[in-house]
Hints:
Shape: globular
Mean pLDDT: 85
CATH class: Mainly Alpha
Structural class: mainly alpha
Number of helices: 4
Order of helices and strands: HHHH
CATH architecture: Orthogonal Bundle
Low-confidence stretches: 9-14, 16-21
Amino acid sequence: MKLPVTLSAALLLGAIALPLAASAADSAETLIKSNGCTACHSTDTKLVGPSYKDVAAKYKGDKEAETKMIAKVKAGGSGVWGPVPMPPHPTISDADLKTMVDWVLALK
């Protein structure tokens, strides 16, 4: 029995997209580790700073979340999650920040 062309195309695209999504997540996690973010943050537990899941929950539905978070990580600051300041990270490229922030925002 032949599969309809649209079903075949959907299966093929799904087979391609899944490894790409895994690759993007792996890339984000690698960037997070290599830039020292895990010294203060973890996925599930508050350390010095909030957990990534808490950050994702706080910004859920905020259309400006990506822009706000990229700026916050780049410039640093305090007051959003308590008195402990987050140091600035001006040397991380905007592309790498976008990858990391998008990964955090996608957490549930």
